[in-house]
Amino acid sequence: MRSSDPLAIAVDLGTTTLAASLVSLAAGERLASAGSLNPQREFGADVVSRLDAACRSEEAARRMAELARTELHRLAEELLARSGAPRESLRIIAVAGNPAMEHLLLGLPVRSLAFPPYRPLFSAGRHLPARELGWDLPAEAYLFPLPGGFVGGDTVAFLHGVIDPRSPSPEPRLYLDLGTNGEIALAAGNRLLATSAAAGPAFEGGNLACGMAALPGAISRVSLEGERLAVTTVGGRPPVGICGSGVLGAISLLRERGVIDATGRLLSPEEIPSNLGNRVTEVAGAPAFILHRDAARTVWLGQEDIRQVQLAKGAIRAGMEVLFQRAGIGADEVNSVILTGSFGAVLDPRSLKNVGIFTEKMVQTSLFVREGALHGVEKALLAAEGVVAAERLAGAIRVVPLSGTPAFEKHFLNNINFPEAER
């Protein structure tokens, strides 16, 4: 890379985690990447909590803007330092987030998002000098467009990254970004429908007793080797917690082995017909399954953790069903699924079937895309007319609201339980 080559930074501004990358506009490649937890979590783990805090207190809103801006500036400086690139080469910082995250970053009022009809204050992408966000960087900032409701720039970026208008995929096709604010899109009958389900942070390891983001030491996979439970961690480090892929994998396994029943109840040791019953105990007065124990730490999955996953998966599956209903199709008519999310590992789609999100056909036709939104931001930066194409895609999305709709509530209640385990 020559010192004069123009550079750009791509950002996925997630509710739970932030991801950023430095790309060379001349070479069309990624030079470095970095990530961290969203520091706004001190105001709540989910979007609703942060919107409530911002509506109640102008100081809280200002603080959340400051936290996000400071951390993104730190990530930008880290990327430039690691690559040895001069600051003067930076041309643009492109940010994709859900509507709440983008509004809070800009310091905009959020009452229009917190209360019906849940509309963002802007829909087209926003261009502004980086200095207006408090960044002493010689660049323009660009925030991705917000189609409406809680369907935001991260959804646009994800879809932009995986949809190739020159090579249409067989429809219907489902797109899932499983995170704190679970985004769902459906391409069917020349229409692109999208919605957002408030899944909570369980899929990213949040709000769980031993939950954590996909950082070194997080359990990312759980399996059985004969009668022995085996765990795999991010970076191969000693286990210190569990991230989203580990949680879903663990619950899937425990459903298959009869440790958790269809209602989500963690069975007692006497009810479990295997050695796995020896791992069921009580932690803080509640049932828990021990995933790992050593001299330094114990990592477990508690009854309340299982309930959090049930709520999350119930919301996602209900959102899917509402889109299917709007498109006039059934779940088994979906021809393929593109999945992304900050799980910490490539998620086994069979885990999503065992917890009740996927059908068998979805398992067979699913593809996992790492860093879906971040990849889409990079694509928009690097492709000719990429930002224009992303704006055009955003305009084609038809947002389907879920809040307060009887159909969503009905499907949510119907999908709280886990499906019966196959024997």
Q: What can you tell me about this protein's structure?
A:
It is a single chain. This protein has helices at 47-56, 58-83, 99-106, 111-114, 153-162, 244-256, 303-327, 349-355, 360-365, 372-382, 386-396, 406-414, and strands at 7-13, 17-24, 29-37, 90-97, 126-129, 140-143, 173-177, 181-188, 191-198, 218-225, 228-233, 241-242, 280-283, 286-293, 298-302, 336-340, 366-368, 397-399. A six-stranded mixed sheet has the order 3-2-1-4-6-5, sandwiched between helices. A six-stranded mixed sheet has the order 17-16-7-8-9-18, sandwiched between helices. A three-stranded mixed sheet has the order 11-10-12. Strand 10 (218-225) and strand 11 form a beta hairpin. By secondary structure, it is α/β, with parallel strands linked by helices. Among the domains are: 7-143, Domain of unknown function (DUF4445) (Nucleotidyltransferase, domain 5, 2-Layer Sandwich); 213-302, no CATH class.
SSE map:
Blueprint: E1 7-13, E2 17-24, E3 29-37, H1 47-56, H2 58-83, E4 90-97, H3 99-106, H4 111-114, E5 126-129, E6 140-143, H5 153-162, E7 173-177, E8 181-188, E9 191-198, E10 218-225, E11 228-233, E12 241-242, H6 244-256, E13 280-283, E14 286-293, E15 298-302, H7 303-327, E16 336-340, H8 349-355, H9 360-365, E17 366-368, H10 372-382, H11 386-396, E18 397-399, H12 406-414
Parallel strand pairs: 1-4, 4-6, 7-16, 9-18, 10-12, 16-17
Antiparallel strand pairs: 1-2, 2-3, 5-6, 7-8, 8-9, 10-11, 13-14, 14-15
